[in-house]
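Recap quiz, item 2
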Amino acid sequence: MAKSKVVTVISTEEKIKEAARKVFTQKGYAATRTRDIADEAGINLALLNYYFRSKEKLFELVMAEKMSQFFGFIGPFLNDESTTLQIKLERIAGHYVDLLQANPDLPIFVLGAIRSNPGHFIKIIKDTNVLTQSVFLKQIQKKKPGLNPFHFLMNLLGMCVFPFIAKPIFETMKLVDEKSFNEMMQERKALIPVWVKAMLDVK
Amino acid sequence: MAKSKVVTVISTEEKIKEAARKVFTQKGYAATRTRDIADEAGINLALLNYYFRSKEKLFELVMAEKMSQFFGFIGPFLNDESTTLQIKLERIAGHYVDLLQANPDLPIFVLGAIRSNPGHFIKIIKDTNVLTQSVFLKQIQKKKPGLNPFHFLMNLLGMCVFPFIAKPIFETMKLVDEKSFNEMMQERKALIPVWVKAMLDVK
DNA sequence: ACTAAATTTAATCATTTGATTAAATAATTT
DNA sequence: AAATTATTTAATCAAATGATTAAATTTAGT
């Protein structure tokens, strides 16, 4: 009787993409050498160009992926009329904490990419009114007409995203370790909506 | 009668440093070409190496400067027993908003430098207990013993710093322009202490 | 004005790095 | 198995880039 074996075959193309995701998000475009990616993927340098033509093309591929990973969730969700503001806050916090815990380098990568090439980013963002005309913002303004939604968005996003940006500082200063950081981020999923609502109630 | 003229003489060394500050903070270490710095300073490439020996040395100089610009304020201030928590919150928010408005690239530069070289950063941070043993943290814990100070620090810092990190996104999406961004950041100097205190009162 | 020191430059080096090429090897089809 | 196609590699190229050198120019001291 012949043995049977289940093997997960990852195509070379996907191996290179995966390596590129890792190296680009960790080091950014300029600090990344195509040789680093080839090594990480366990293949030769020429093969990388055979598949993806150039470093820039490969980067754009990864960047588009990461952009929609970072912004993709928010779009359809903003105009959901069937959920309360409370529920939306809980979902946003829950989603971003989980997403960034699985991809801690995502914020700095995305922010860096936009900063170094805003023009390129404009093409990706379809409709800028998506946010300003959204049910979500209307719900906020109904709750607290006096507050500029800029402040609200900054605080909500900042509470979710900033810890992952500041993580290296906190770790270096020995204020947290990997484990306690993750525990506290899980706590925040419930706390952020509470804090944000407190901000809407105050003053 | 001889005319007299006041001329501010900037030494070549300082011109190069100033150019290095600008280019390094805008583009980061890897994306910066020493030729960019030389051009920005209006001098020749060789001169840069004559004065500063190497790109890395020059970078370390700029980095140390920016680190103390970013962290310097907080140290002595944390153990001031003569000020209330309220006053401290107002001063932190006021200080960081003004500092970052004058140096919008500072956060990303500092965070990037730490992330890409945590070991180097350790040497700069003298005593890690400075923060955890501070009067400031004791005041917070007295106000709300249940809250992990991690959350408090993240929110306070995030509210001050995150907007400057996210600024390019908001600008690209046409949610703010330069002018209204600065106005809103000035508003935040007063609002952040209110929000942070609301966070300490709630729940 | 002359000399010595400091400052500045053009030219050049060596290494790194993104990309290409032609040949070898492996997989698939007929 | 032979032929065809797809995959992989080593060797090499050209441009970019950090750094050096030796010479030219400017500045300061006497």
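Chain A touches chain B through 53 residues (CB under 8 Å).
Residues 33-35, 45-46, 48-49, 53-55 of chain A lie near DNA strand C (CB under 10 Å from a C1').
End of item.
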